[in-house]
Design brief:
mainly alpha, 14 helices, single chain, about 70% helix
């Protein structure tokens, strides 16, 4: 519950930050003759000198209205921007770059809100009761039997390694066995979160590992000590990683820019700004897919066709976004989609490495 409340607070913060970055709406009702901020004569809804809105809210009700408006409304632009992001990403990206911006949510506010929404949803997503079962579509009894057989096979391997005097192999097998036990600890239990399972696995590893004989980070003694200390308390480590994940999510943009530059560096008229807008809208779309997938898991959607379409969606979206944003043909968009799909995986891997290192060092 505390994690969900914290995530909700982060979402509210994101909404307010995004609203502050986006253009404010005009107030309602009569406004004074002079700007309250700079004293200039007012001729419209906003001051021509400093940009402050003419009408200033002064009631508690207006405070709550601003709060809700910042999270949900975005001046009504969401109803224009989101359909474009989903179905016409290339036109959205190109229109924004060319200066047609009044009707759309700007890329940075949209990125903030969507990413924080994703982490908010991930904080309460539930796994299906059979998601961590061994045995696939087998009956509950067959799954229990499969789990027992898997553990018996591991025990037999441990016995053989002990007989051979292979201490390293024994330790690896013991850790693996602990992971299997921990992963199936909540088997068949409804309402289990991914974080519950990962915490169980981490605690299982920590319980069987002799940390004095383990090297987590080779070549960096100080970091190795910090890493071992962090892994002894996997629940705290996961909390740190979750907290840092959304705080550092913006790193995905600069990490993506070199790959985009390499795909277009020989073409004139395309700058890093264009790539940044492309990356912001693209990452926002993928974050929305994570939201959809998380909600699907929570309600128990396990259809192979649904998940196949969900996995295919990023590549299809990127193909159309590339065509429209950079005005290129199908072939140019296709090979760049393949290239950037691989680059996206490398970028995500680099982001996760940075996240883990900072989570361990902190």
């Amino acid at each position: 519950m505390a994690d969900t409340i914290e995530a909700a607070g982060a979402l509210a913060t994101a909404g307010l930050a995004a609203q502050a970055l986006d253009q404010p709406t005009a107030g309602h009702g009569a406004h004074p003759a002079n700007c309250a901020n700079c004293g200039a004569t007012l001729s419209g809804a906003f001051c021509a000198q400093c940009g402050q809105r003419a009408h200033l809210h002064r009631t508690v009700g207006d405070v709550f209205h601003e709060f809700l408006h910042g999270i949900t409304h975005f001046d009504g632009k969401a109803w224009t921007t989101l359909p474009m992001l989903l179905f016409r990403p290339g036109k959205l990206t190109r229109s924004y770059i060319e200066g047609h911006r009044a009707r759309y949510i700007a890329p940075v506010p949209l990125f903030l809100l969507v990413v924080f929404t994703m982490f908010f949803v991930l904080s309460f997503v539930k796994l299906p009761a059979d998601a961590i079962e061994i045995g696939g579509d087998a009956t509950p009894a067959e799954r229990v039997a499969a789990t027992r057989k898997a553990l018996a096979d591991i025990d037999a391997d441990i016995a053989r390694a002990e007989a051979a005097g292979n201490a390293d192999e024994v330790r690896k097998l013991q850790v693996f066995r602990a992971g299997v036990v921990a992963a199936t600890k909540r088997s068949g239990t409804p309402g289990v979160t991914a974080r519950d399972v990962m915490t169980d696995i981490g605690e299982g590893f920590a319980g069987v590992t002799n940390w004095d004989n383990v090297t987590v980070v080779d070549g960096f003694p100080g970091l190795n000590v910090r890493a071992k200390e962090a892994l002894k308390n996997p629940k705290l480590l996961l909390y740190k990683l979750q907290t840092k994940a959304y705080k550092l999510s913006f790193l995905l943009v600069p990490l993506s820019l070199p790959w985009l530059w390499l795909a277009f560096f020989w073409r004139r008229g395309i700058g890093m700004y264009d790539h940044a807008i492309f990356a912001l809208y693209s990452i926002s779309f993928i974050s929305l897919l994570f939201v959809v997938g998380s909600l699907a898991l929570t309600v128990g959607i396990t259809s192979g066709s649904f998940w196949g379409l969900l996995l295919l969606a990023p590549a299809v979206h990127m193909l159309f976004q590339l065509r429209g944003a950079y005005a290129i043909g199908w072939w140019g968009a296709a090979w760049r989609t393949a290239y950037l799909s691989v680059a996206a995986m490398l970028t995500l891997s680099a982001y996760l490495v940075i996240l883990i290192i900072l989570g361990v060092v902190d």
